[in-house]
Specification:
Strand content: under 5%
Shape: globular
Number of strands: 0
Largest sheet: none
Radius of gyration: 22 Å
Distance between the termini: 44 Å
Number of helices: 19
Length: 490
């Protein structure tokens, strides 16, 4: 008997996207505040060590997840069409793969500990490593439950544990440490792990009854093939920033690692918030492609791309205009990272101009081209950084990332156009891209002027209303979108 999750209505898509966006925005905002608090709790050397371990754990999490996240998104519609029993066995198998992969990663880190942390010798202890290792299987299972709910359009269950419970709890722990005067890096990392543990328990308690595991495994060769490809893609995408941090540590200093990490993570919050749209649309892409509804898929992708660019442009406009004030929050020494932060915001605009093109190709089974594009991106970033970081420091790292992102997105867009005849291009699309880059330049100019914050906010408001909102409404939105927007606002 077929077990098929119905596609959500346009109203539910809007509600889901709104809730997911609000949840991720909450997580992004608290993540930003948490970073500020950590920068104030720890000295710059300890902050560099913390930045390194979080960057390293990002890589470890990807390996521990073993591509299961993307494999679930890609395979669930197919397994559901084969019946509820097949679907539940598949879910149990994927969960087991995650646990095995997490155990292997933990073992490897224990064996290679001295090599991995050679540049921080004597600045950490066994408790620090134990806390880091404990977070790996917990994070993997949080992601596992989130993806299952995401692919079944259970937006609340998918959002609350990872994007509300975890960051709120971590924030509370950090605030307590700050006011109590604790400056121990082990307590910071311990709070980070504790927040993930509570998020995991929340995910287990709030899981959908239909998603209970079936104590039966069926491991197929195709599972490992898909998982391995998706893991490599994710790994390559995250490897570049990690290697950049390592290269900065070689050519510059541990303090520069902290500076780069703050600017990079702050700019990345923009992409983090935008992923809320992909959370809602990726399962829809998967179902439409699996049902061979190509025209509707093409239409959905174009709308998805336009709205991602609109929201990205708005967030980048705020970040660029007030970049000096944003970086100043971390302390006087971080004011020197303003231009670095602006370049990384520009990278986020480039990262969004083709929308969720990587997720579109993923659900279409074009993982090989995504892997090739990821290799090109990582290779170009690493090679360029070896020259630019030595010459220009952290700004050189940002330039390298910018070029790598453009190459990655361009290759995927061209291949999508060739292989499945789907692309985002239209007259309205090109107008939207021009509006986006035009507002970026205006924001850059406003930030360069020596003016009072109140005057800058007034200038920003004028620009936002007349050079962004009105232009987008009049030129980019179609009649249906304008009508729905008026209904929502009214």
């Amino acid at each position: 008997m077929e077990y098929k999750t119905k596609l959500p209505t346009s109203k539910r898509i809007f509600q889901g996207a709104s809730f997911a966006f609000a949840g991720r925005l909450c997580s992004a905002f608290l993540g930003y505040i948490n970073l500020i608090i950590i920068a104030k709790i720890l000295d710059i050397e300890q902050f560099g060590l913390y930045s390194f371990i979080i960057a390293f754990l990002t890589i470890a999490y990807i390996i521990a997840n073993f591509g299961v996240e993307q494999t679930l998104i890609y395979m669930i519609p197919k397994k559901q069409s084969q019946g509820h029993n097949v679907y539940r066995i598949f879910i149990t198998t994927m969960g087991s793969i995650i646990l095995v992969a997490s155990s292997v990663v933990i073992l490897l880190i224990i064996l290679l500990e001295n090599t991995i942390f050679i540049s921080f010798e004597g600045k950490y202890n066994n408790l620090f490593i134990a806390l880091a290792l404990f977070s790996i299987p917990i994070q993997s299972m949080v992601v596992f439950y989130r993806v299952i709910n995401q692919t079944n359009f259970k937006y609340i269950y998918a959002t609350v544990p990872e994007y509300i419970v975890r960051p709120v709890l971590f924030f509370c722990c950090l605030v307590g440490m700050y006011y109590l005067g604790f400056t121990n890096i082990n307590l910071v990392l311990g709070s980070y792990v504790f927040s993930y543990l509570i998020a995991f328990l929340t995910a287990v308690v709030s899981r959908n009854k239909n998603e209970k595991v079936k104590l039966q495994l069926k491991v197929e060769k195709a599972y490992f093939k898909d998982c391995f490809k998706f893991m490599n893609i994710q790994l390559l995408n995250q490897l570049s920033p990690f290697i950049l941090v390592y290269i900065i540590g070689i050519y510059q200093s541990n303090s520069d690692i902290g500076f780069f990490r703050v600017a990079f993570q702050t700019a990345t919050l923009i992409a983090f918030a935008l992923r809320s749209i992909e959370v809602v649309y990726t399962p829809i892409f998967s179902n439409l492609y699996n049902d061979n509804m190509k025209e509707k898929l093409n239409y959905t992708y174009k709308k998805n791309t336009n709205w991602i660019i609109i929201i990205a442009s708005l967030l980048c406009l705020i970040a660029i205009t007030f970049s000096y004030e944003i970086m100043s929050i971390f302390g006087e020494e971080f004011k020197t990272t303003v231009f670095l932060f602006q370049l990384l915001c520009l990278n986020q605009i480039i990262n969004t101009i083709f929308g969720s093109i990587d997720y579109l190709l993923m659900v279409a089974g074009k993982t090989r081209i995504i892997l090739v594009a990821s290799i090109l991106q990582s290779g170009s970033v690493i090679l360029l950084s070896l020259f630019f970081i030595e010459q220009y420091g952290t700004v050189g790292a940002a330039i390298s990332i910018l070029f790598g992102t453009f190459i990655f997105r361009l290759v995927l867009m061209v291949w999508s156009w060739i292989s499945i005849s789907i692309h985002p291009f239209s007259v309205k699309y090109f107008y939207l891209v021009l509006i986006s880059f035009f507002n970026f330049l205006i924001g850059f100019y406003l930030n360069s002027l020596n003016m009072e914050l109140s005057v800058k906010m007034l200038c920003f408001l004028i620009e936002f209303v007349f050079l962004f909102l009105i232009l987008v409404y009049l030129i980019v939105l179609d009649k249906e979108e304008k009508k729905k927007l008026r209904e929502r606002v009214g």
